[in-house]
Amino acid sequence: METSVAGGYVLVTVGQLANVCAARKDGEISFFALRVWLATLEQRHRRTNTKRPARYKTAELQALMGSATAGGIERAIAELSITGLLSWSDTSIEHTTELRPGAASLASQLGTNFMRLVPIPRRILRALFRHKSPSEVMAAIGHLIRCLFKRGRKIANYGLVKASWIASVFGIAERSVHSARKWLAREGFLTQERVHQLVMNRWGGKFLINLAPKVAGRRAGANGFAPPLLTKTPYRSTNNQIEVARAEAGVRSEPGPGKSRPPTIKNIFADDLKHLPRLEELYRQAVRANWLRESEANLKNFVCAALRATRAGGRVGAIFVGIVKSGLWHHVTQEQENDALAFLRRHREHADPMRVKPVERDRRGQRPVFAVAALVPTVLNGSLLSGRSAL
């Protein structure tokens, strides 16, 4: 949290922003009137610390907004006065704080108290009433409501904002929300931080409102001096050369992810399911971890799950674990099951004895586990008798 904002800030309630946005959404006021309403916030704030009587003129609003005529500003003030959003005269400016009936629905969708104060930085406020894209200004106001909070003397400048939520509440296109974000980021007003994908899916991305303007970095040599050297020890030099160890010519081969470490059910790679000695160790660990009970049927299911996962591709380990732990054997197709049973049958016709000997008990006295590698040596990684790859 910050305690100050560069250039100051203007306090506006959520209800006031909801009133003007709802009026614009329902077509009661023009977009130019919305810009004038925002400009009057800056005009009034300029007189907050003066002891002299305030004097307001349309010429000042014309200078603030840039390309605006005096007649257009007077018509916009009349629109705002008719709708009850603004009371403007030469001596006072009043923005209604009561929630209008037409804005109650929009305010309820904001999910916050309509009397909560939103500290809008003045430099962002000036950019808003000078911007000429209606949907981008509405989207920017939505981001300010979601990200700016005043808690005592401290100001929180971050929040979670979902583009689809902004689009539905303010009645604009979702692409306009993304366009507004690009504009705010380009101007240095908005920064997005990385959050978990599940958070983004549910609540949206995390955005920060920059309370201080960006300071452009000074170019190297701009002050007339040469840039400093990057050497950490400028007063020490050496003529010793670094000896490079000899290496054999050719391409260096790196061990695969499945071969460089023992297999573990906590992190299963595709190679673990394609190499039968590693699959055997995984089956041992799965039984010990109570993923499944030791039985002939579960042994076949374990092999079928490995076959299904490797043929599915993608996150092979996650698919395999999901099938085994949840018992989702129905995800194995009939063709894959027939292939696995055929592999088992072919091996048992050529293997002696017909059944595989159970492995010895471990030190903790766990139940024995059948050796998968001895049972089906050609199921996953070997060539089939039919001449077709198993995976």
Which key terms come to mind for this protein?
two-stranded antiparallel ribbon, single chain, disordered C terminus, 391 residues, mainly alpha
Describe this structure as you would to a colleague.
With 391 residues, the chain is mainly alpha-helical. Helices cover 44% and strands 9% of the residues. The protein has 16 helices and 9 strands. The strands form 4 sheets. Strands 7-9-8 form a 3-stranded antiparallel sheet. Strands 1-4 form a two-stranded antiparallel ribbon. A hairpin with a 4-residue loop joins β2 and β3. α2 packs antiparallel against α6 and α13 crosses α15. The radius of gyration is 35 Å and the shape is elongated.
Give the topology, please.
Elements: E1 9-13, H1 14-25, H2 31-45, H3 58-65, H4 70-82, E2 86-88, E3 93-95, H5 104-109, E4 117-121, H6 122-130, H7 134-147, E5 149-151, E6 154-156, E7 158-161, H8 163-170, H9 174-186, E8 190-193, H10 197-203, E9 205-209, H11 270-274, H12 276-288, H13 296-312, H14 316-326, H15 334-350, H16 372-375
Helix pairs in contact: 2-3, 2-4, 2-6, 7-9, 8-9, 13-14, 13-15
Strand order of the largest sheet: 7-9-8
Strand content: 5-15%
- What helical percentage do the residues reach? 40-55%
Order of SSEs: EHHHHEEHEHHEEEHHEHEHHHHHH
- Specify the number of helices: 16
* Main pleated-sheet profile: 3 strands, antiparallel
